[in-house]
Amino acid sequence: MENKTKILIGVLVILFVCLVTWVVRTTPNEPIDDYIEPPTVMEYENNTLVEEKDGVKIWEITTDKIRIDANTHRADFQNVKGKFYKEDGKVLELTAIQGYYDQDTRNIHIEGDVVMTDGEGGKLETVHLDWLSNEELMIATEDVKISKDDMRAFADRAESMNGFQKFLLKGNARILKGVKEDPAENSAENSTATEKPTENPAQNSNADANSNEVNNSER
Q: Would you say the C-alpha torsion 173, 175, 176, 182 has a positive or negative sign?
């Protein structure tokens, strides 16, 4: 009787081992993915971007929200507050609705109610503002208005390579001097304002049509 019990136990053990082996062999092997793909888009709030050259700060952009795409190397931001630092120590401050920074070219594009001030009464208003890093060129486009003291300048496009000191106006350019208030606000008081004529392309073959230069450092 004891031998039969041992034999029965042995048979049961063998059957159990065979069953486990069958289950292991018939269970599909699911690949284990140990690598987790990192996110390509990251978002931050209340962030500041800064660019320096030879240890000197060139500009900084502070935003409420920034979205960085690792694939396109582009940083989009909203509610822009920025500063451009000039070589003479003066600071240009700007505000705008939105913009983006290209990490490859280090260029900046800002748009929507763009306003830039120089702290000395000078103000630039436009729809779009671009900063080209390699050329150190600032370009304002669409409904450009530059004002300082009693001077008002208007154009489709304005370019500056010396940090708000001089602007080259292009496209429907006109300059008013002796303006007490903006022309749209009080046309009667501006009746004595003098308009500086735009440059005649026929007199200078190298000049752009309807262009003019504004010196913002005269006052």
A: positive
